[in-house]
Design brief:
Elements (H helix, E strand, L loop, with lengths): L6 E2 L4 H23 L4 E2 L1 H27 L5 H18 L6 E2 L2 H53 L11 H21 L1 H17 L3 H12 L20 E2 L3 E2 L3 E2 L7 E3 L8 E2 L3 E3 L1 E3 L8 E2 L3 E3 L2 E2 L3 E2 L67 E2 L5 E3 L5 E3 L3 E3 L25 E2 L4 E9 L2 E9 L5 E7 L2 E2 L7 E13 L4 E9 L5 E12 L8 E9 L6 E9 L2 E12 L14 E3 L2 E3 L13 E3 L15 E3 L5 E6 L3 E8 L2 E8 L6 E9 L2 E9 L12 E9 L3 E6 L4 E2 L10 E5 L5 E5 L3 E5 L5 E6 L9 E2 L3 E3 L2 E3 L5 E3 L44 H9 L3 E4 L11 E4 L17 E3 L5 E4 L1 H41 L1
Parallel strand pairs: 4-7, 4-13, 5-14, 6-11, 7-10, 8-11, 9-12
Antiparallel strand pairs: 1-31, 2-3, 15-16, 16-17, 18-30, 19-22, 20-21, 21-29, 22-28, 23-28, 24-27, 24-29, 25-26, 25-28, 30-31, 32-33, 33-34, 34-35, 35-36, 36-37, 37-38, 38-39, 39-40, 41-42, 42-43, 44-45, 45-46, 47-48, 48-49, 50-51, 52-53
Helix pairs in contact: 2-3, 2-4, 2-6, 3-4, 4-5, 4-6, 5-6, 8-9
């Protein structure tokens, strides 16, 4: 969550140079990309178009004026120019940035203007030809004289592309020619006015790029017979009046016509050598095929005269006013003195002006590349030297700046549909998609329902701080694709402004809204232009909205710029260096010395009462990263040689869940518990501790608490957790489906295996001899008393326990019958017990588990099968467990009952023996009598 944004820094000179170099490279790369995009008008193209469009506007104004003078309709031309001007003004408002352009619209408007212009020019040309036809017969001589003068000028234009070297000289000579022509025009006023109008129209039309090349070729070939040149200024022809005279095929070289009046006379085929016509007035005279050698016409007025084939080699003084004379193909090789006004100069390249241009003190240079050794402002606030070093009192460098943080949707985490994207809030309805891409850029989608008549925001970009920039234009663009939505649905792309608390201003937003489409559509480009930041706005951002229905659509490649018009997508956030502040830039190899550094904007959440930023570096070297939402506050910090993590619940009633984690040089300390109050400053201690885990080199691992435990979840092959859990008491419990826990040298070499399953199906198994004190159990079926002492089997209460076995082999069998251990001792009635023994039914049998080789068994039978017992066995001889279940015959009781039976039998034997002895004595007595 740590972000690099508005950071207070001190830049070294090397740092500034690095940034300048990087920005230059970025701008160059951006410019190349713009040049390759047919839908963009690049900066270079804009600047070229601005220069050409200025010429087009000048041409339009001249043609419009001449057409109105000639009473020619200009409605179509005005409409075409107005439409083209509206289109071009929007594009050329800012010539420092590339702009979107509709090439088809541009071509259509340009073609319409050229067609209307061509129609007006044709009408002007037709009007001019009509005037020329009407006046040509009366002005041919004057035209020839002016043509001769223009020939000299046309020779100067042959090297027009090198006019920069001799511009001032050309103007001086042109001025001389203009002066002579001016006097001639004054004399031939009526003829020259018509000619002047026509030629001026032709001159202005030459501004058009379509006719420029043809006009230059015509001028370079000279002004042919019959063409008209309007000369308006006084020169060698001084104060004379030539009325309607014609000077045809005449050469006037050095002659002077002074104050004479030449009215209706014709000077035809006459050579006038060095004659002077002084103070004379020639009004209607015609000078036909007359050769005028060195004659001078001084101060004469030639009004309607025609001068043909006049050589202007001798025009050396005076002024020709080119405001009324339009010359073609002027050769500037003989223009050596005077001044040429550059506002009338149209050259293809300024490189043609190779002379020192001096100081340019007014105007502006547009659409050109400036290559200079040094550059500086008049007050020295900005300078560059020949080595490229820049010194500026206040420098701002702006690249192509996309104010949308992480517009490329990088660094996502989580899984669909709960993916998180750095710098974006996707709310509950938005989701991240890297399956639907626009030019490789992922998208944010909506695939849900808004409910009827409900607007739902499903995505918002990170808010960008305005830093006091109010009343500024902002524009945005985005690409949109509809995968199928109800027709009643609306989608909206919003450029919104926010207050200092991150709340959207009620009147501070602009939106582009469109309807859903039930059929899946392709990508569409959506724009918002010229949204002005309000005076109370602190942030700006973009939002994606859905309304009134169910649909599936996605947005990609958002672009937010501080411009009046939206621009195409750029993934970077731009580079801004202004008064020691860097936003969204990369700093390499620099040392930054400062006070407090913040990343991102103040966290917009009601629980952020301390106005934490997502990231802050404090002057004491502490780094803190903070997060808030309605449920929790999180803060991690690196300070005082330790890493500290704090979790604070924002929900509680007298108890607020709190976790603290500290990693330092001693180890790891984790604590859980509660704070008594909501801790929005992360400063309240955990005053009720419910558990802790401490790991350090001195004490190892210490666990305390109800939930503190060590959990083992198995290997990568286990889909679900499987292993053991070591409790705070150190006990071992199964985790998941784990059934055993073993100790050994691997799964195939277990020393001991402990069954830990809940069902008790798995036993405890020892695979090595087991020593328990003096008691040994080995793997050879032997239980050994290690100290040769007896082995006792007792119950928990110290009493002997029952032992169940099959065949028991023993050396002797000893029953404990100590009187000291007995109570209620009475002499047994042996006759009773003998009677019980004699009542037992004995049986021979085999166990069901015996095989055919087993011997016949003999014993009493415990009848646990028949309700009416088939086999008699007094209950006194039956053994039962603690639950009353029949176990078998109690041989201890039966044995002693048998002993009682023996005793009873012995008594009977003794009685019988006594009786036998008595009988034997009586028999002996009887035998003695019989024998005696």
């Amino acid at each position: 969550m740590a972000e690099s944004n508005a950071t207070q820094i001190i830049l070294t000179d090397d740092g500034i140079k690095i940034i300048n170099a990087q920005n230059t490279a970025d701008n160059a790369a951006s410019g190349v990309a713009n040049l390759n995009d047919a839908n963009l008008m690049s900066v270079i193209e804009k600047q070229t178009q601005a220069s050409q469009y200025a010429g087009l506007t000048s041409q339009y104004n001249v043609v419009l004026a001449r057409a109105k003078e000639a009473s020619i309709s200009t409605t179509a031309l005005t409409t075409a120019y107005t439409n083209l001007n509206t289109f071009m003004t929007a594009i050329l408002t800012d010539t420092t940035k590339a702009s979107d352009v509709n090439r088809d619209t541009y071509k259509g408007l340009t073609d319409a203007y050229n067609t209307a212009l061509s129609n007006v020019q044709t009408a002007l040309s037709n009007n001019f030809n009509t005037d020329i036809s009407n006046m040509q017969s009366s002005v041919s001589a004057a035209s020839q004289a002016a043509s001769s003068a223009a020939i000299v000028a046309s020779q100067a234009t042959t090297t027009g592309n090198n006019a920069s070297q001799v511009a001032s000289q050309a103007y001086s000579a042109a001025t001389v020619a203009q002066s002579a022509g001016n006097n001639a025009t004054s004399i031939a006023n009526n003829a020259s006015q018509a000619a002047s109008s026509a030629i001026l129209v032709g001159s202005q039309a030459a501004v058009s790029a379509n006719k420029a090349s043809a006009d230059y070729k015509t001028l370079s070939a000279g002004v042919k017979d019959g063409s008209i040149v309007h000369i308006t200024t006084e020169t060698v022809i001084d104060k004379g009046v030539i009325g309607t005279a014609e000077i045809a095929n005449g050469a006037i070289t050095n002659a002077q016509i002074g104050n004479a009046a030449v009215n209706s006379a014709k000077i035809a085929d006459l050579a006038v050598g060095t004659a002077q016509i002084g103070d004379g007035a020639i009004t209607n005279a015609k000078i036909g095929k007359l050769a005028v050698g060195t004659a001078q016409i001084a101060n004469a007025a030639i009004t309607d005269a025609q001068v043909g084939n006049v050589s202007a080699n001798k025009l050396t003084a005076g002024t020709i006013d080119f405001n009324t004379i339009t010359g073609k193909n002027i050769n500037a090789s003989n223009i050596t003195t005077g001044t040429l006004s550059t506002d009338r100069l149209n050259v293809g390249k300024l490189s043609a002006l190779s002379a020192n241009l001096g100081d340019v003190t007014a105007g502006s240079l547009k659409g050109v590349d400036i290559i200079a050794n040094t550059f500086s402002t008049p007050n020295g606030s900005f300078t560059t030297d020949a080595n490229g070093a820049v010194v500026a009192s206040n420098l701002t460098i702006r690249g192509v700046t996309n104010l949308v943080y992480n517009a490329a949707l990088l660094g996502n985490s989580g899984t669909y549909p709960n993916t998180k994207v750095t710098g974006w809030n996707l709310f509950t309805k938005g989701y991240y998609s890297n399956a639907t891409l626009h030019d490789g850029v992922p998208s944010i989608g909506f695939n849900s329902s808004t409910g009827s008549g409900t607007w739902v925001t499903f995505a918002q970009s990170k808010l960008y701080p305005l830093n006091g920039l109010h009343g500024q234009p902002y524009s945005a663009s985005v690409w949109f694709i509809d995968d199928g939505s109800e027709a009643a649905m609306n989608y909206q792309f919003t450029l919104a402004f926010f207050d200092a608390n991150g709340n959207r201003l009620a009147s501070g937003y602009a939106g582009n809204t469109w309807s859903g489409n039930p059929t899946a559509q392709g990508w569409a480009y959506k724009t918002i232009n010229n949204a002005i930041s309000p005076s109370n706005a602190a942030y700006v951002g973009i939002q994606y909205w859905a309304y009134n229905g169910t649909g599936h659509a996605l947005f990609s490649s958002p672009m937010l710029t501080q411009t009046a018009l939206s621009t195409g997508y750029q993934p970077d956030t731009g580079n801004v260096v202004s008064a020691g502040e860097i936003d969204g830039s990369v700093i390499n190899g620099s040392t930054i010395n400062g006070t407090t550094s913040h990343g991102g904007d103040i966290i917009s959440n009601a629980n952020n009462t301390t106005k934490y930023y997502p990231m802050t570096i404090t002057p004491d070297g502490a780094y803190k990263s903070t997060y808030f939402d309605s449920a929790v506050g999180l803060q991690s910090s690196v300070e005082s040689g330790a890493i500290i993590y704090k979790y604070r619940s924002m929900i509680g009633n007298g108890q607020y869940l709190a976790y603290d984690s500290v990693i330092n040089g001693q180890g790891l300390n984790l604590q859980s518990g509660y704070t008594s109050a909501k801790d929005t400053t992360f400063s309240n201690p955990v005053n009720t501790t419910t558990g802790y885990v401490i790991v350090n080199v001195n004490d190892g691992i210490t666990l305390h608490g109800d939930n503190q435990q060590v959990t083992f979840n198995g290997t990568s092959d286990d889909v679900t957790p499987k292993g053991i859990i070591i409790t705070p008491y150190g006990n071992i419990n199964p985790n998941g489906t784990q059934n055993i826990w073993y100790v050994g040298n691997g799964p195939t070499m277990k020393t001991a295996s402990f069954g830990i399953d809940g069902s008790g199906a798995n036993n405890i198994q020892f695979n090595r001899s087991l020593d328990i004190g003096n008691f040994n159990i080995n793997t050879y079926h032997t239980i050994t008393s290690s100290d040769n002492g007896p082995i006792h089997f007792n119950r928990n209460d110290g009493k002997s326990v029952d032992i169940y076995a099959a065949t028991v082999n023993y050396t002797s069998l000893v029953k404990s019958s100590l009187l000291s251990l007995k109570k209620d001792v009475k002499k047994a009635d042996t006759a009773y017990w003998a009677q019980l023994v004699n009542s037992i039914d004995l049986a021979t049998y085999q166990y069901k588990s015996d095989d055919s080789n087993s011997h016949i068994r003999l014993s009493s039978i415990v009848d646990d099968v028949n309700d009416t017992k088939q086999w008699r066995l007094p209950d006194i001889f039956i053994s039962r467990d603690e639950n009353g279940k029949l176990n078998g015959v109690d041989d201890s009781v039966l044995l002693n009952a048998t002993l009682a039976t023996v005793q009873e039998q012995q008594k009977e034997i003794d009685q019988l023996n006594g009786h036998n002895m008595e009988l034997e004595a009586r028999l002996n007595k009887l035998e003695a009598r019989l024998n005696g």
